[in-house]
Specification:
Layout (H helix, E strand, L loop, with lengths): L5 E7 L3 E6 L4 H7 L18 E6 L9 H11 L1 H4 L3 E3 L9 E4 L8
Parallel strand pairs: 1-5
Antiparallel strand pairs: 1-2, 3-4, 3-5
The structure holds FE2/S2 (inorganic) cluster.
């Protein structure tokens, strides 16, 4: 279990917000809050279906790891790495941020 402050991640264009414990991965926090997040590999860093485009707060997010970089490169090509695209299943949150992602649904 992760303790510490909660950060708010806003999902565009829906305007949904997710409270993320410090250091937790975005998709994990979303699931724990009852959200459905598009994906095909259940957070195994293979499908890249969980990708988001970072709109703001990039300094509040974890650095991209090797597995995430390789997954994006293999599944979406080098151009994906030239954009602020990240995998929500790998993305640690350390402050407020806004990302763009369609298809995220709240559990309500
Ligand atoms: S859930 Fe498949 S790569 Fe993130």
């Amino acid at each position: 279990m992760i303790f510490g402050p909660l950060h708010t991640v806003t999902i565009e264009p829906s305007g949904l917000t997710i409270e993320v414990p410090n250091g937790e991965r975005l998709m994990q926090a979303a699931r724990e809050a009852g959200f459905w997040w598009p994906n095909q590999c259940d957070m195994q860093c293979r499908c890249t279906g969980c990708f988001v485009t970072v709109v703001s707060g990039v300094d509040h997010l974890s650095e991209m790891g090797r597995a995430e970089e390789e997954a994006l490169l293999n599944q979406r090509g080098r151009r994906a790495l030239e954009n602020p695209v990240r995998l929500a299943c790998q993305l640690g949150v350390y402050g407020d941020a806004t990302v763009r992602k369609t298809g995220v649904r709240s559990g309500e």
